[in-house]
């Protein structure tokens, strides 16, 4: 008899797929930008080019093709690792980071809900 492993989902919030035009800005004055992979009310995952993981602080979410922006979202990094492939012909790494949101203001919560209901592509 073979044993099967049961996968237990530990996330409290449903994750949603996003359009390719969804980005996250982080670092001082949003100097670094990453492409969002998926998002929930509790956090998001994104890919970015670089060697330095995002430090805890604040980030922004925006859509390149739409008039949507929400900023100063507190976060902490929960995962960060290099993913297969390179960003270009140079040796710059392509990385994936997962972040958890901190305490959101009522306005940020409202804007994030608007983003999830109005601009996502379905559950991830």
Compose a concise summary of this entry.
This protein is mainly beta and 124 residues long. It is built from 1 helix and 7 strands, in the order βββββββα.
What features would you describe in this structure?
By secondary structure, the protein is mainly β. Helices cover 10% and strands 46% of the residues. It is built from one helix and seven strands; from the N terminus they run βββββββα. The chain has a six-stranded antiparallel β-barrel. The termini are far apart.
Search tags:
mainly beta; six-stranded antiparallel β-barrel; 7 strands; 46% strand
Structural class: mainly beta
Oligomeric grouping of the chains? single chain
Mean pLDDT: 87
Order of helices and strands: EEEEEEEH
Spatial order of the strands in the main sheet? 2-3-4-7-6-5
Rough shape? globular
Helix fraction, binned, reads 10-25%
Low-confidence stretches: none
Total helix count? 1
Beta-strand share of residues:
over 45%
How many strands, what sense, and barrel or not for the largest sheet? Answer: 6 strands, antiparallel, barrel
Could you give the count of β-strands? 7
Report the span from N to C terminus: 33 Å
Overall radius of gyration = 15 Å
Strand and helix layout:
Elements: E1 16-17, E2 22-26, E3 32-39, E4 43-49, E5 57-63, E6 68-86, E7 93-101, H1 106-118
């Amino acid at each position: 008899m073979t044993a099967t492993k049961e996968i237990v989902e530990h996330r409290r919030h449903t994750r949603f797929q996003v359009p390719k035009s969804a980005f996250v800005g982080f670092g001082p004055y949003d100097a670094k930008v990453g492409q969002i992979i998926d998002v929930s009310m509790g956090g998001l995952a994104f890919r970015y080019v670089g060697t330095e993981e995002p430090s805890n602080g604040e980030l922004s979410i925006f859509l390149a093709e739409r008039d949507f922006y929400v900023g100063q979202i507190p976060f902490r990094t929960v995962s960060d690792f290099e993913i297969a492939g390179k960003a270009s012909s140079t040796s710059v790494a392509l990385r994936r980071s997962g972040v958890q949101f901190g305490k959101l203001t009522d306005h940020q919560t409202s804007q994030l809900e608007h983003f999830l209901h109005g601009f996502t592509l379905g559950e991830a």
